[in-house]
Amino acid sequence: EVSRKFVHVSGGILSLFLPAFIDSHWYVLGLCSIAFLVLLITWIRKELPAIHKTKRKSIGSVIFPIPVYICFAVLCLLDESVFFLIPISLLTFADTVAEWGGKKWGKQTISFFGGRKTLAGSLSFAASAFIVLTAWLTLFAFTLDFGTPIINFRVIAWISSVVVATTLAEL
């Protein structure tokens, strides 16, 4: 699990640098498609256990490139980096902290639509999401059109936590 999360965080950090070096979503589509195919093939063949092996059923390691591309395409469409940096940061860091928190302190579980999550993992996600969002606000002073950003980031952190806690399956 440690090597799996190391690859997850490393891939996420590398993804965060995409906008600095690539300005066309077509290149990112190509990169993410290749990454997706490699991850899918190795998952099917049960290769690269450091990436794919988990104690629970999960396809998160395979689908990781999909939100990276979707967020990059939105960035290109709207010409606003916040729509790439924040979701990929949450995927990279808050997801990792949620797993660690759930494993370390997770005694109480919650279940929605057949997926089980620990309360500790969900709260860990919320706390780390708030920290990630606050860091972006502080570092880049993102101002959004719908009010005071710090309040909205709190709302986004809690909504993200609810979405993660209520996922239909273990992704």
Care to give the gist of this entry?
The protein has 171 residues and is mainly alpha-helical.
Overview of the structural elements:
The protein is mainly alpha-helical and 171 residues long. Helix content is 73%, strand content 5%. The protein is built from nine helices and two strands, in the order H-H-H-H-H-H-H-E-E-H-H. Strands 1-2 form a two-stranded antiparallel ribbon. A hairpin with a 2-residue loop joins strand 1 (109-112) and strand 2. Helix 3 packs antiparallel against helix 6 and helix 6 (65-78) runs antiparallel to helix 7. The two termini are 15 Å apart.
**Strand-residue fraction?**
under 5%
How far apart are the first and last residues' alpha carbons, in Å? Answer: 15 Å
Poorly predicted tracts of residues: none
Structural class: mainly alpha
Which percent range fits the helix content? over 70%
Overall residue-averaged pLDDT value: 78
Strand order of the largest sheet: 1-2
The geometry reads as: flat
Reported for the largest beta sheet, the result is: 2 strands, antiparallel
Per DSSP E runs of 2 or more residues, the count of β-strands stands at 2
Q: How do the helices and strands follow one another from N- to C-terminus?
A: HHHHHHHEEHH
Radius of gyration: 16 Å
Please, how many helices?
9
